[in-house]
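Quick one: structure for this chain?
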Amino acid sequence: MEYQYLDMDLVKANAGLKSKQYDYILYLPDFPIDQPTGIELYGNKQAGLSLNGRVSGHIEELIRNKKLKDSGISQQALDDLKTNVDIANKKIGETGDAQDSSAGASTIIAFAAGILMFMFILLYGIQVMRGVIEEKTSRIIEVMISSVKPFQLMMGKIIGIAMVGLTQFILWILLSVAISSAAVAFLVDKDTLKQTVTTTKVQTPTGVTLDKETETAVNDSNPMAGIKKSMASLDLPKIITVFLFYFLGGYLFYSALYAAIGSAVDSETETQQFMMPVMMPLILGYALSLSVVTNDPYGNVAFWLSMIPFTSPIAMVVRLPYGVPDWQLALSIAILILGFIGTVWLASRIYRVGILMYGKKTSLKEVIKWFTYKN
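Got it. Here's what it folds into:
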């Protein structure tokens, strides 16, 4: 952002604004240093919140520097008062020993897990819905229904796409591990890592070498060593295993509902009225998990989000890097399994009727009536 000082009245300045000589005009009247009032920002278009914040920040900094100068305090003296505090995170394990932990690494893993879970459930769930709509509109379903039961057909599609998604995810994990390992091998030179200790020893007085504790501290100050230490504090095998389970559980839970939606409509354009009630809990769980849960992973909101099957696939994998009691994890898994059984039963009641309904726009009231149909 660049400023240009204009020594002219506001009327002439606005004329230049209309001719697009400037993007905005910042009007600064005479005001007391303690009461900066009357400041105005003119523009041919509405200034955004970000622009207002940046301009306000610049003015506040100028006023602050003016006050410091008038008080006889130099900027260097003020900077010398600042002190950076580095807090080392320690987690008490089950044995009572203090273990290194990293809030930064936990937050990064939590965000990545939450985003991936949301994308996977939404992507593969919609794929199930589109597959059902395609089979219904092409009348292939009429041939298939003569050989298998509607419930078997629905579960076959759900499980089939689940296996495809699981295979893709495992391949991505293997590929990511291979690429990251290769990157570390090629980009990190072991001689460079050793050079830090060697250089430190050379700079010490003649005949004096660093003790083992100091040498270890020098090694740990290396950026790569810090990353490795942060990742080592996380139980990655457990995180990946639980992520895979919640991916399958969350996908099966939502894909049954998406299959029911696909069977109730004749085209994808008719799915809007049914999609919103299904997607809202998923979106709500995603938004709250990446905001509330990451700030307080042990609070009541985080606990209940990780128990409700509509939100637990995202909320639990976000909480997991911070540490979750085993009983909460087991309870969440049990509730998710029961929720999946319930949604499958619910979806099958809709699916068995909807796949043979053609040429009529289905309403939510009509879908509710299908539950009373016996055959």
